[in-house]
Amino acid sequence: MRQLLALLLVFAGALATAQEITAAAAADMSAALPELAAAYTKKTGQTVKLSFGSSGNLTNQIRNGAPFDVFFSADEEYPQQLIAEGLVSGALYRYSVGRLVLWVPHDSPLDLSKLGMKTLLDPSVKKVSIANPTTAPYGRAATEALRHFGIYDQVSSRLVLGENVSQAAQFVESGNAQAGLIALSHALAPAMKDKGRYWTVPFDAYPILNQAAVVLSRSKQGDAARRFLDFLRTPEATSLLASYGFSLPTEKQANGASWK
Amino acid sequence: MNWEAFWLTVRLAAIVSTLLIAIGIPIAYWLTYSRWRWKFLVEAAVALPIVLPPTVLGFYVLVALGTRSPLGRWWESLTGHTLAFTFEGLVVGSLLYSLPFAVQPFAASFGAVDSSLLRASASLGHSPMHTFRRIVLPLSKAGLVTGFALSFAHTLGEFGVVLMVGGNIPGVTRTISIDIYDQVQTANYSSANQTALVLLIISFVVLSTVYWLNRYGSNGRPWVAGPWK
What we know:
The complex is a heterodimer of chains A (260) and B (229). Chain A is of the alpha/beta class and 260 residues long.
């Protein structure tokens, strides 16, 4: 009886590891990645389990042994840190570029297209939600963009920090903040699409948000994880990513980095 | 160690536990003396925050008290801003979050007062209010202190509600538990460790005091019984 039980456990374990890969992903992928994973599962039978958070938080969890197979970061810095610490197997995959947008709810009287970033100087904007710059690439992009337009000092006392860029989006979507600097992928996601307007912050206002993924060296399913990453460069995946505003970078934006 | 976050949190806990004395005593009074057949529903409602995830409270404060709700609009017209991302918002969230930790010890100590004393007072012609003020409250000192201390300690350790409605604003809503979370996320372990240790020691001292009072109460009997046992 005991042997039978042990055998069952072994089988259950084998099934679980053979069929599922676990991905940790930056919050800006919270709408796009489930769709990508579903498309991939439909195609290959391979299921992908997803966990979302800020890139910094996930990096720290990975450092402390989180059982992820692959990590999707909203910038290159965090994966590079993990590479330097020997926690990554293989190379860095860049698969698209994230965009920062200024978002306001539909009922907002603010004229985004005319004012752009200066919208935030309007007295009716009492709170501006951004992601936490210490752990979220979009938060850093937001503060850089505010500095780029020379309004950081005027806005800083009105900033509220989301734990990650999804929470920043939720703060402004729920009307608790009057404007937010969030991911284009959230502005285009079904949950927010019809609820507000956005203005795309120009690329030169903040460091490029290269979406980069790495397979983690702890993973026992490195090959399965890599196949999933390869899928992200198929036309099917790139058009899905594009529908969420994730573009492939132009040569200038890529800045000499490898995008094969 | 982030002293700004520390003092902010102590201020929050002190305000909340003081307000809970004012709010908790009438509720506890009613719970102790009411004979209403549906009283158990109120008791359950008061106890809810013990079992409810803080995220549920956070969600309600954020959405039900946000600009989309009548209550939120009323608050905004009154104060010019929403409850979320403000210190008052944290106070409101924490009042709900720590309510049972004040009310239950209060009610338990009111209920432990010898009922013959109440009858004696009534027979001497005193009103129930007068009896409550002059007999029940003084005899319940221990329960009041316990409720105050527990709601203080509970608010000190609040995390989920603050994470959801605080917006992590330094000096306004960045409490000590959020600060620890940020430190850990940025792998700043030594700083997290310091802050965590301070919080651990304070919580231990507060709880030890409560248990000590419980054991050596004025009349040698345990002062109160409550949910933390």
